[in-house]
Design goal:
By secondary structure, this protein is of the alpha+beta class. About 55% of the residues lie in helices and about 20% in strands. It contains six helices and three strands, in the order αααααβββα. The protein has a three-stranded antiparallel β-sheet with strand order 1-2-3, covered by helices on one side. Strand 1 and strand 2 form a beta hairpin. Helix 1 packs across helix 4 and helix 3 packs antiparallel against helix 4.
C-alpha cells in the first residue's frame, strides 16, 4: 500500500510547480490551503453519507476521494505520507499488546522420518459464558521436512500476515 502512496506523493509534489490550468491538482494548489481544506471537508462529508447509505462501492469511491484530497493537503503543507504511516504504526503498536500477539504452542519432531509436526495458535478469543470461561484459540497443524521447520518468530509473522488464520 505505501508504494501507491509514495507514487501519488511524487505526482502531487510535481503538480505543485505546474501551471494551474494544467491539472486539477495544480489548480487546487494555486487556489491555496483554504480551497484544499474545503475540498477535504466536502469529501469527508460525502464519505460519511456513503457509509450511512451502506453501498460498499460508494464508500470505497468516496474514501478514495477523501484520501486523495487529504494527500493534496499534506503535500501542500510539505508533509510526507510516511509521517502519517509512522503515526498509524505508533498507534497500532500501542493497541496491540504482547498478549495480542499470536504464539506457537508446540512443535513436535520425528527424527525417524525427518518430519516436523507444527502446531501453532492464532489469536486468543476470550470466551465467557455461564458454564465456560477461558480462551478459544485457532490452531494450525501440518507436517513438513525438518529443514523447513518454522521458528516461533516465523509463525508469528505468518499468523500476523494471515490475520490469525492458518497460513
Amino acid at each position: 500500500m505505501s508504494e501507491i502512496l509514495t507514487k501519488l506523493s511524487e505526482v502531487l509534489e510535481a503538480r505543485k510547480a505546474a501551471e494551474p490550468d494544467s491539472s486539477y491538482v495544480a489548480s487546487l494548489y494555486a487556489r491555496g490551503l483554504d480551497t484544499i481544506l474545503k475540498k477535504v471537508g466536502e469529501e469527508a462529508t460525502e464519505t460519511v453519507i456513503a457509509a450511512k447509505g451502506g453501498n460498499v462501492d460508494e464508500v470505497i469511491y468516496e474514501t478514495a476521494d477523501l484520501w486523495f484530497h487529504t494527500m493534496v493537503m499534506l503535500k501542500h503543507l510539505d508533509i510526507e505520507p510516511d509521517a502519517v504511516l509512522n503515526e498509524l504504526d505508533r498507534r497500532l503498536k500501542a493497541i496491540v499488546k504482547e498478549n495480542d500477539q499470536p504464539v506457537v504452542v508446540d512443535v513436535h519432531t520425528s527424527v525417524a522420518d525427518k518430519q516436523a509436526l507444527q502446531e501453532a495458535t492464532g489469536y486468543a478469543v476470550i470466551v465467557s459464558k455461564e458454564s465456560l470461561r477461558g480462551a478459544r484459540l485457532s490452531q494450525c497443524e501440518f507436517k513438513q521436512p525438518m529443514a523447513d521447520r518454522l521458528t516461533d518468530e516465523s509463525w508469528r509473522e505468518r499468523l500476523l500476515g494471515n490475520k490469525g488464520q492458518c497460513p
